[in-house]
Amino acid sequence: MKTLKWLGILIVSVLLLMFLIPLLFPGTISDQVKIFANKHLAGKLDYKKTHLTFFRHFPSLTVSIDDLVLRGSKPFQNDTLLAAKEVAAGINLKSLIFDGEVNINEIYVVDANANVFVNSKGQANYNVYVSKPSKTPKDTTGKGTSIKIDLIKFSNWNIKYNDHSANILVNAKGLDYTGKGGLSEDIFDLKTDLEIQKLDFSLNRVNYAQQKYLRADLITRINTNALTLVLRKNELRINELPLKFNGSVSVLKDGYDLDINAASEKTTIHDMISVLPPQYLNWAKDTKIEGKSDLFFTLKGSFSEARKVKPKLTVRLLVSDGLISSNKAPVPLNNLNVDLNVDLPSLDVEQLGIDLKKLNFDLGGKNTFHARIKSKGLKEMNVSADIKGAIDLAVLDQSLGLKDLELRGLLDADVKANGIFNIDKKLFPKTNGYLGLKNGWLKTAYYPNPIKNINLSASITNTDGTFQSLNVKLNPFKFDFEGNPVFINASLQNFEDLLYNIRAKGVLNVGKIYQVFATKGLDVSGIVSADLSLNGRESYATTGQYNKLDNKGTLVLKNIKANTDFLPKAFYLKEGNFEFENEKMWFRKFYATYGKSDFSLNGHLLNTINYFLERNGTLHGNFAMNSNYILIDEFMALKSGDNKNKSVQVEYAKVENPKSSGVVIVPKNLDVSLDVNAKKIGFKGMDINELRGSASLNKGQIYLKKTSFNIIGSRMTIDARYQNESPLTANFDLGLKVLDFDVQRAYKEIDMVKELATSAKDVNGIVSIDYKLKGDFDQNMNPIYPSLEGGGVVNLRDVEVKNLKMLSVIGDNVGADAFNNPDMKGVNIKTHIKNNLIHVEEFKFKVSVLRPSISGTTSFNGLLDILVKVGLPPAGWISIPVAVIGTAEKPKIKFFSRTGQGILTAIYNRKINKVIREEKRDEQKSGGEQRKEKRTQEKKAKEAENNVNRNLQKG
Are 300 and 311 in contact (CB under 8 A)? Predict the structure, then answer.
């Protein structure tokens, strides 16, 4: 009884302490959490409240933070890096009670979402830990917080890792992690228990793992001094496939040193198939799969971008005695054997080596297939291949138990090749190959009707390893779809100077054919009708021997929807009637829309056959283009639209700049001239009417020549050139002439006038302009003002200038009200622009009986360094110099002074489209130094105007 009594007292005492300790030390704990966060976190940390308790992670005493949100490091300080329902730190109870110190030895994070992001420039959002801050809050308690972690436990995490610089995306859902070891020691063994319910992994937008279950039991020796990880015991299971690996990883100053060996030995084909994408797993459940498999890979060497070195990857896959059979199969797919080796030195695809030593299977009787393929390199590929098989596709379909695909027909293949493939050197392996299909049938679950009566007879031969002896024949390829027969017959000889004979006839519903294959892509609707006969030689077109060509026929397209990877919306070709006539493809009728924009074309493309045959070919053409309305804004690459198949560059730029419109991307494979007649064009809220002139697209640039249009009631003529550099930047050259330009209307309606000519707000009347500019557009297609270069003349034909502060301040000081309303009619003002400064050449005007002149420099940000010479009567021979400095809004003057205070130019880096330094006031210098510096700046500005002329003439 006494023992039970003391045991009861002990239990009650322990329970009492478990309630009292959190009440005795709450201030200490809360203070230390805040001190630690402020000392060591660069990202903003928010949470609702803290708790000190034994009961959340019994028996540990933990300080728990509820509803934690941690923001990322710059420039991602507004984005969430980590959000967790609970983050808890385990406290060493002995240190807390006897020493009054908070020693953290356990970490718990529950129900968390982590979003790790690296942008295209390599900037990461996870750099939130600051080890040695220069300024930290003072610890007034005299006691600190120490960390000596023995346990880390994550429960129910969702982690998304998106690295745009490496094109890697990892998405892990339902992650549980337990890590044990002396994590604060210099050398320790980390025991890891990891489980992920669904894991996705993609590289370069290719999915290598989708919704995979992963289980890991790992022991890793970590040396924090040498930053080395030794993989001692490492066992993974991906779905049903076990994987063991060992080796080491060393972190270097400029990269990593890797030596990793992995193997999945003595497993089954069924285990191997379990790592396939999810859509194949249901098929595997209902299919008998037998056989042995082994998988090995190694990754050895250094990885360093700075030293431009990468490790070597080797992979080997062995499959033996395989059998695949569904319940309905008359015979199984039997004797499946695979021996595949992949060698990738320096992770360089140009050195890629593939050795498929064996790929064999049979379907009973004469239904056999075997392949042996060996290659080395990519751009110059050394190939040896032997492929042979005769397969009844209906038997193959039944054996595999394919649910979404129905195949029929007799497939016969016999291909032998040996030699070098290099397009630039015009080399092709010696080849003798044949592929045939008789009475083919293809039906999928995505469309109710089949493609039937598929017959194909294709042969390829090469006798000497050059393009010259390469011959390809398609005789014939035909099929029926939706009651419409399609027939193609082709003979291609001598690919060094291609001799082609192609006959194509049929009607195809492209929308329905895409449904058959459930393909998201270029065409999703519409009809194509063709009746073509194409005969000729490639050189006939390139050398102008058009009379030797015999290309004829028609191609009709209706209601075709087309996407490109650089436009946010789809083009809709309402109707297109095309006629082939030797070297020309005539557009007899062409009407298309893009968003709110519409286009009608009449003209021809040249040499379209060679465009499809040439590598990196260019389309040449000449058209008359008419349009009722073109909205340039909707062509900007990052605008919202229905196109989901954008390029990686556009997709990443949109993610990293969600509020930006981007710039218009110009295709680089066009060399097309256009006579343009557009009734209305919209651009950033500005309306341009009745545009007429010549335009051309050439090598990714747009040129306008002697193009005129109406804007705010004035007729303007321009020569221009435009070129995008990325989805976010572009450059332009512009030469414009305009008569009868209403200054006040332009100031009110055109934002660019407000920013380029701030003094226009004080001007009423009509001016004429002859000006040239070059510069860059930013990510919203606004001009970057420090990038602008050029110059020209503004003629004040019939204007009133009232209350211009720069002049009014002079009038106020000399008592001459006439400075508030000077006579500037007929005055020519010549200026040059460079580095955000506007250099004004001297011009004269009238103020009552006075004859002032103005020259000097001003900036787009309003800084002034102007010399006003006030010419006294009778003829203005004697003048009073007045230096005007300060800003356009707050000018300051110095009488009898020819030197104000210079302005240092802005510095703009055109390669990276970035303003390195804005213009600013120069240090006070002598008059001679200022005049010398000003002459230098003005000379550079005049040279900029000449450069614009040269760039415009290139088009």
Answer: yes
d(CA 154, CA 699): 54
Range in 265-274, 473-482, 808-817 the model is least confident about: 808-817
247 CB-near residues (< 8 Å, 6+ apart): 230, 231, 258, 259, 260, 261
- The bridge status of strand 187-203 relative to strand 312-325 is unpaired
Residue type, 876: G
Dihedral class, residue 856 (left if φ above 0, else alpha if ψ from -120 to 50, else beta): left
Rg from Cα positions in the chain: 38
Q: What is the mean pLDDT of residues 815-835?
A: 84
Residues 6+ apart with CB under 8 A from 930: 899, 900, 901, 902, 922
The arithmetic mean of pLDDT across residues 691-704, rounded, is 95
DSSP 115-150: EEEE-TTS-BS---B-SS-SS----TTS--EEEEEE
What are the CA-CA distances from residue 225 to residues 128, 149, 187, 747 (Å)? 22, 17, 8, 65
Task: Average the pLDDT over each of 86-100, 179-193, 429-443 and give the range with the smallest value.
Answer: 86-100
Residue 75 DSSP code: T
The pLDDT-based confidence of 60 (bands split at 50, 70, 90) is: low
Highest mean predicted confidence (pLDDT) among 277-286, 471-480, 556-565, 745-754:
471-480
Three-state secondary structure string covering 647-714: CHHHHHHHHHCCCCCCCECCCCCEEEEEEEEEEEEEECCEEEEEEEEEEEEECCEEEEEEEEEEECCE
Q: Is the pLDDT of residue 549 over 50?
A: yes
Q: What is the DSSP letter of 233?
A: E
Rounded CA-CA distance 60/17 in Å is: 13
| Measured distance CA(696)–CA(689) in Å, rounded | 20
How far is it, in rounded angstroms, from Cα 170 to Cα 579? 50
The least confident of 86-100, 439-453, 473-487, 599-613 is 86-100
CB 852 within 8 A of CB 822: yes
Dmax over CA atoms of the chain, in Å, equals 128
Q: What would the mean pLDDT of 230-249 be, rounded to a whole number?
A: 85
> According to the model, what pLDDT value does residue 653 have?
92
Tokens of 860: 């787009």
User: pLDDT value at position 29?
Assistant: 55
For 880, the token pair is 């009073």
How far is residue 125's CA from residue 933's CA, in Å, rounded to a whole number?
44
User: What long-range pairs does 121-126 form, CB within 8 A, spacing at least 24?
Assistant: 121/165, 122/165, 123/75, 123/76, 124/73, 125/72, 125/73, 125/76, 125/79, 125/81, 126/72, 126/73, 126/81
Before 476, cis peptide (omega within 30)? yes
Residue 130, both tokens: 């600051």
| Dihedrals phi, psi of 83, to nearest 5 degrees | -130, 125
pLDDT for res 136:
45
Average pLDDT, the chain: 84
CA 401 to chain centre: 40
Q: What percent of the chain has pLDDT over 70?
A: 87
Taking Cα atoms as reference points, which of 701, 740, 739, 738 lies closest to residue 720? Answer: 701
Look at residue 755 and tell me whether its pLDDT is greater than 80. Answer: no
Distance (Å, rounded) from C-alpha 919 to C-alpha 904? 5
Question: Rounded to the nearest 5°, which phi and psi values hold at 16?
Answer: -65, -45
Distance, CA of 128 to chain centre: 26
User: Per residue in 116-154, is it b (16+ CB within 10 Å) or e — as a string?
Assistant: bbbbbeebbbbebeeeeeeeeeeeeeeeebeeebbbbbb
User: Is the pLDDT at 849 greater than 90, yes or no?
Assistant: no
Distances (CA, A) of 376 to 301, 351, 773, 898: 21, 7, 52, 75
